[in-house]
Amino acid sequence: MSNRPQLILLGAPGSGKGTQAAKLVEELTYQHISTGDLLRNEVASGSELGNRVKAIMDSGDLVDDGTVLELLQKNCDLANSQYIFDGFPRNEVQAKALDEHVLKDVASTAIYFDIDLGVLEQRIVNRRVCKGCGEIYNLLFKKPQSDGVCDKCGSTDLQLRKDDNPETVKNRLKIYKESTEPVLKYYEGQGRLSRVDASKGSEEVLKELINVINN
Ligand code: AP5
Ligand code: MG
Fold first, then answer.
1. Is 42 helix (H, G, I), strand (E, B) or coil?
2. Mind listing the pLDDT tens digit for each residue in 97-114?
3. Are 98 and 38 in contact (CB under 8 A)?
4. I want to staple 130 with a disulfide (CB 3.0 to 4.6 A). Which of 10, 47, 110, 135 is the partner?
5. Sign of CA dihedral 44, 45, 47, 49
6. CA–CA dist 66, 72 (Å, integer)
């Protein structure tokens, strides 16, 4: 394992966390862990947990801290891997739980995807996600080469997420401001926060991220 820190990506819905995490996995030796993806997998599988959280996710509210922390712990093994945490922590309780129960004394750094919230609805309602391989597209900013066909795996099932409609996006952004923005202060206060300009094109954002990680 390299001696790079565990990465915590912080940013509003649509700021590009999932897009950049996938690129970082290709460029560096990280594994991507997205609590949103883990929860959506539970919903798709029809598990007891999935049925319990489905309506909450569809409305854009946050799932309870205990459920998400347990799911995260079940899916990561810090002794043997380096992770990109995407979508966790979402509030201060989760930030403290991540430090105390998951990271413990393992080195980590938080990176804030800095972007004006006003541009995010347009990004989000135009997102399409490949059902086959999870590749993230955008009808305005990152179209597949052939309409409706995944460049990576050839699937023709490019889906709009259930929570990617204007009404739910408004609620998600409101919750982000209320619950997740305060987490920035938590990391800043400890000198563990870096920033990237997430309004730039995705290749430029990737360059900034790699700089932050290597310095
Ligand atoms: P989650 O899946 O985490 O969603 P989110 O935080 O709302 O973030 P998104 O996935 O929408 O955005 P992203 O930053 O990954 O953007 P992306 O790269 O796709 O959470 C979903 C739900 O699960 C929550 O609402 C909650 O209910 C529950 N949940 C999850 N974690 C939880 C937790 N810890 N606690 C409690 N509940 C939890 O990009 C977006 C679009 O923009 C794409 O189309 C992309 O192609 C495009 N794009 C990306 N970068 C650029 C760029 N640089 N320029 C132009 N377009 C770009
Ligand atoms: Mg995402």
1. helix
2. 999 999 998 999 999 999
3. no
4. 135
5. negative
6. 10
Domain count, the chain: 1
Pocket of ligand 1 (CB under 6 A): 11, 13-19, 34-36, 39, 56-57, 60-63, 68, 87-88, 90, 94, 123-124, 126-127, 136-138, 141-142, 163, 172, 201-202, 205
Local structure of residue 98 (DSSP, 8 states): I
Give residue 69's domain range.
Answer: 6-116+178-214
Identify whether 36 is part of a domain: yes
- Res. 44 pLDDT band, cuts 50 70 90: very high
Phi-psi domain of 191 (left: phi exceeds 0; alpha: psi -120 through 50; beta: other): left
Asked whether residue 186 is domain-assigned, the answer is: yes
Spatial distance between the Cα atoms of 116 and 120, rounded to a whole number of angstroms: 8
- The one-letter amino acid code at 167 reads E
Q: Is residue 21 part of a domain?
A: yes
Q: Considering the domain boundaries, does residue 121 fall inside one?
A: no
Pocket perturbation via mutation, ligand 1, pick of 35, 117, 129 by most ligand atoms within 8 A of CB: 35
The CATH number that applies at residue 99 is 3.40.50.300
